[in-house]
Amino acid sequence: MSVSDGPTAPARPDVDPPLDPRGVRFAAVVTTVVLTLVLISGSGWLAAAQALVFALAAFAGMRFAPYGVLFRRLVAPRLDPPAEREPAAPVRFSQTVGFVFAAAGAVGYLSGLTVLGIVATAFALVAAFLNAAFGFCLGCEMYGLIARARTARA
């Protein structure tokens, strides 16, 4: 699958260079911790903060993703260069999906629709945990499925 055949606009090389998969997994670990805290505390403001983190990556580009910046500045200098890199477009798509769920969770908690907050946050948490624990990016898999469906229709 090429970067340009996915469900979102093609990644721009100046905004979305290939990613170190260890950074993506690091971001998933931090996201897992944040979303767990949201579920424990019921904090709509923390859910909104996580939605903002997703939004920066999804809409501004992966180089602006706050957890990615932390990885590049604090962790990556202590590691060997990555053996391989992965395209940014599927990860950026997964950040968009995460944004939708985190924003829905924030709206739920902040508006008193606590069940919406819990369910939306729990869905985002499951996806983040799968990536953090097993390296399985659910949003990236969705990206691939949508890309294949578009190719089959064309």
From TrEMBL:
A Pfam short name: DUF4395
Transmembrane spans: 26-46, 91-110, 116-140
InterPro entries the UniProt entry points to: DUF4395
Keywords: Membrane, Transmembrane, Transmembrane helix
Domain DUF4395 span(s) in chain numbering: 20-148
Protein name: DUF4395 domain-containing protein
The organism of origin for this protein: Pseudonocardia xishanensis
